[in-house]
Design a protein that fits this description.
The protein is α+β, with helices and mostly antiparallel strands and about 150 residues long. The protein has 2 domains: about 45 residues; about 100 residues, Immunoglobulin-like (Sandwich), CATH 2.60.40. It is built from 1 helix and 8 strands; from the N terminus they run αββββββββ. It has a 4-stranded antiparallel beta sheet with strand order 1-3-6-5, with no helix packed on it. Strands 2-8-7-4 form a 4-stranded mixed beta sheet, with no helix packed on it. It is elongated, with a radius of gyration of 27 Å.
C-alpha cells in the first residue's frame, strides 16, 4: 500500500510539473506573438494628434447665450487617425467632430457648442477625445464666466 501511495504521489507531482511547463510555454508563445504584433503595428505606423490650442476662454457672456469654438488638430504621425468618441463633461456642451480618418499631415476639427442657459458663474467644460492615435486620450476645454439673467 505504501509503495502504491508513493507511486501515485510521484505521478501526480510529475503531472503538475508538466502542466506548469506547458503553461510557461503557452505564456512564452503568447508573449512572443504579442511582441510580433506590436512590431508589426509599429512598422505599419501610428497616428499622433497635436492640438495647437487646447483651451479656449470665451470671456464673459450673458446666461442663455451659446458659444461655439472649433479646435483643430493635426495628425503628425505616420498612419490615419480615427476619432472613436468625443464627449463632454455635461449636457450643456455638445461636440461635433471629423468622422472620416485624418491622414498623416492632414488636420481635423472638433467643434464645441456651449449652451449657457442655467449655467451662471465660472464655467470650465472639458471635452475628451478618444482615438486610435498614439496619444489615444486627449482633452480640450472651454472656459469663461456666465452672468445671470
Amino acid at each position: 500500500m505504501n509503495i502504491t501511495n508513493i507511486a501515485l504521489i510521484g505521478l501526480l507531482s510529475f503531472s503538475v510539473m508538466s502542466c506548469n511547463q506547458a503553461s510557461k510555454n503557452s505564456t512564452e508563445t503568447t508573449d512572443s506573438s504579442s511582441t510580433e504584433t506590436v512590431a508589426a503595428n509599429q512598422n505599419a505606423g501610428i497616428g499622433t494628434i497635436e492640438f495647437p490650442e487646447r483651451e479656449y476662454d470665451f470671456g464673459t457672456i450673458k446666461e442663455g447665450e451659446i458659444v461655439e469654438h472649433v479646435f483643430t488638430f493635426n495628425n503628425t504621425g505616420t498612419a490615419p487617425v480615427i476619432l472613436a468618441q468625443v464627449s463632454a463633461t455635461c449636457g450643456c456642451t455638445t461636440p461635433e467632430y471629423t468622422s472620416v480618418p485624418v491622414k498623416p499631415g492632414a488636420s481635423g476639427e472638433i467643434k464645441v457648442h456651449f449652451d449657457s442657459n442655467g449655467q451662471a458663474g465660472q464655467q470650465q467644460k472639458i471635452v475628451t477625445i478618444r482615438s486610435n492615435a498614439e496619444n489615444s486620450v486627449e482633452t480640450v476645454q472651454i472656459k469663461g464666466t456666465v452672468t445671470a439673467k
